[in-house]
Amino acid sequence: MKSRILLLGPLVILWSTSLYAQADTVDTFFGDENDFRVTLGASGGIAFVNPDQVNEQLAFMNNSLDVQMEKLSSMQHYAAFMRVKPRMAPYFLVRFEAMTVSRSFDYTAYGRSAANVSTGSFTTTNVTRWTVYPLVIGVGSTIPKTPIDVEVGAIYAIGYIAENGTIQGGGSYKSSSSGNGFGLQGRVAPRFKIAQNTSLSLEVAYRMLRLRDFSDDFGRQDRFFELHLDGMSLGFGVVYTFN
Question: Can you list the positions of beta strands (E) in 28-147?
Answer without folding.
Answer: 38-48, 74-84, 91-112, 118-142
